[in-house]
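Q: My collaborator sent me two sequences in one message, no labels, and asked for predicted structures for both. Can we handle them in order? The first one she listed is below.
A: Yes, handling them in the order given. First sequence, followed by its structure tokens:
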Amino acid sequence: MKVVQTTLTEEEHRLLEEYARRKSMSIKEVLREAVRTVVEGSVLSGDPIFSQSPASKKTGKNDRASVDHDMYLYGEPR
């Protein structure tokens, strides 16, 4: 194992802590996952966007699926 050290802004650190808490992961786990995702270009298999059926099956209708997709997938606006 190698040790890597970096500096984060207060905002970046807050976002990292919040994400880790929501995912029930340690900051170390989140950072390792982030490195693998960026460097290897892997897909986060647990992300609902890759496993859920379409939020809207309507065709030719004016609905908000393309606008509210984060709410449908994650249950919260992003």
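Q: And the one she listed second?
A: Here it is, processed independently of the first:
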Amino acid sequence: MKDRSFGSSNQIFARFSRTPKKIPVPFYRASCGNESFLRPVETLTIFPVEDDGTMWKEVGIDAWIGARKTSLEDARMTVTEIIDRVRKEGDDALRELAKKYVELTDIAVSEEEREAAYDEVDVEVIEALVEAHARIERFHELQKPKNLWFQEMEPGIVLGMKTTALNRVGIYVPGGRAAYPSSALMCAVPALVAGVKEVCACSPPPIKPLTLVALDIAGVTEIYSAGGAQAVAAMALGTETIRPVQKIVGPGNIYVTLAKMMLREHAEIDFPAGPSEIGIIADSTADPRVVAADVMAQAEHDPNAACILITTDKTLPAKVGREITAQLASAPRREIIEQALKNSGYTIVHDIDEAIAASDIVAPEHLSIQVADPLTVVTRVQNAGAIFVGKYSAVACGDYAIGTNHCLPTAGFSKMYSGLDVQHFCKTASVELVSRDGLELIGDIVETIADAEGLHAHANSVRVRRQC
């Protein structure tokens, strides 16, 4: 891959032209008995959509969480068949499965295709991606652990940790309803900052120019035209064109998510992830217009996105509802937002203590804190994928350019998973340096416990050394 340096605005204008390309929305073939049919891309979490005439309503925490109906089992048969095909047929399976929406000849994206992609993207967007990349890289550089450190614990006993980057990882960049260059940056940057030598990316064909440009700016070494569960299977198992990886990261629909989970014996993954969501803790100081804007921003992601406002102010929900109605009137993605708002709502609590407790039960992907003393809340909250503090900390800043990572666990998984970071692409090994004096210091302890467990050779391995 060529080394690219981006100079002044005039230099960039001289290099790139602006002719956007429209890409069709992908479909996946699902099976039902002996019948096969096309269905649009789905997501990990499904919220039941009921046309009850309301969009902004009061909901209980338990009811809101209960609406997160996962449908992984519905896709298991389809994903199992896809994985089996890729295992047996390799590249041929990728080409055949791609025929659902495009005729695929070359799986690997060429250097010429990368170059051509720049001509399809507005120069202002390219400049924005370059600047976003720099900020994301700068923040993730701060996460880098020491390659090796030691600490003398006792005389003659020195312990340490050695951190090694994974050698080869795969990233999945969705290509469904829209292009997601931001996800390409978010997945690639921490891997490369960690020191991963080979980063390969898969995205549904035809790969959108925006995605190609973002992957190229990030420095991804290999790009492949492959989408859905088959792309995950290809990266995990390997094909004639795509060599297997150690870890697969990146968001995707229900088929992608399930394939990642089913192939963990071959390649580790980041975490399960579904449609976007936001939890907002707010009090009487919160600006209803800002709260409404945050709700709308998450709702436009997907019809199955979900938002919940947890507030101590009984008057705030009505104000937010009026603002949502006003902003919805001119929203370009109004239809999607209206569907997502049916999964959303508010709950009124007595005080901040109760609000924090409720938020931790929800464990939202994004948590916005809009209260008089936000830092106090930050120190006490335990479960959230990313936390946005104060009126001006829009979640959208984290989605694109502030530097933090937007690949985050959803559907309550932030109780046990962290968002994507440099550590995801590293592995560690403890290092032990013991001198003769150090061995004498712990020798009796080791021999006693080893003999108690009946592992006498373990005890003898220490005894022999002490006798030398």
